[in-house]
Amino acid sequence: METHGEDQNAHGGTGAGASAAHAPNGVSIDAGGFLLAQLSAPRAVGEPGELSFQVLDASGDPVTDYTTSHERELHTIVVRSDGAGFRHVHPTLDEASGTWSLPWEWDAAGSYRLYADFTPAGDGAEGVTLSRSINVAGELSPVDPEPSRSSEVDGFVVTLDGELVAGAASELTLTVERDGRPVTALEPYLGAFGHLVALRQGDLAFLHVHPEGEEPEAGSTGGPEIAFAATAPTPGRYLLYLDFQVDGEVRTAEFVLDAASAAAGEDH
Ligand SMILES: [Cu+2]
What pLDDT is stored for residue 22 in this prediction? Predict the structure, then answer.
């Protein structure tokens, strides 16, 4: 068998041009020959412990070499299946064992999805997003996200402008204000003035989102606007999370956006 875990057809040029964009990203424990394994976390709310996992290569060996992307070798996102409890964290790699870990405690019960987002070592390697679910015991109070373009966090009000359109790259602009005034003291975080994660409601597929504009220099500040290009694979509801940094502290603003079908008359 010569599979190496890579599905040649997944990247082939067959079918309509847009079909590649329909392959959901980040909904599988394996992709590109890599496997998310050994996921361990506290089992109940309020139990202090550790979150840990490994990324295995096609031979089953833990991966210890990565390519830095957005200033980190690996990004970890944890979110409950209803979109609540979003956390974007950066665990530490134990190079000897290939185990990523960080201290962890759950605030609320439920079924969570953990994403490991990384670029393998090697020239021209493409980013990989793996995910696994984790169940946390306790009393569950699920939420039902409704469309929302404004988010308040620690006195910052962040507003989202732009529309998601299925199958097309859309520009989304986020504007940060405090006390009714534009915030121009945004600090670089992960190679931009903000980091946006977008998930599809229903399967929590992970969208590719790119910051627009030049990478800011260390020590520079920006704002109040941050622009991103995001592609929604299908019509439907999306959960968006903006991490931004002011005064050395990272905060997360949350949004819910419905993606429209591609405009009528646009043949493909
Ligand atoms: Cu990250």
Answer: 57
Q: Which CATH architecture has domain 8-136?
A: Sandwich (2.60)
The answer to whether residue 207 scores a pLDDT higher than 70 is: yes
User: What pTM, to 2 d.p., does this model score?
Assistant: 0.88
158 touches 244 (CB < 8 A) = yes
Distance, CA of 214 to CA of 46 (rounded, Å): 41
- The reply to whether 8-136 and 150-259 are identical in fold is yes
Q: From ligand 1's centre to the CA of 88, what distance in Å?
A: 6
Q: Measured in angstroms, how far is the CA atom of residue 100 from the centroid of ligand 1?
A: 13
pLDDT in tens, 82-134: 999 999 999 999 999 999 999 999 999 999 999 999 999 999 999 999 999 99
CATH fold of 150-259 reads Immunoglobulin-like (2.60.40)
Cβ atoms of residues 24 and 203 within 8 Å: yes
Encoded tokens for 209: 């989102």
Cα(196) to centroid(ligand 1), Å: 10
Phi-psi region of 224 (alpha: psi -120 to 50; beta: other; left: phi over 0): alpha
Q: What's the Cα-to-Cα distance from 236 to each of 149, 166, 203, 233, 239, rounded to whole Å?
A: 15, 8, 11, 9, 10
How many angstroms is it from 188 CA to the middle of ligand 1?
13
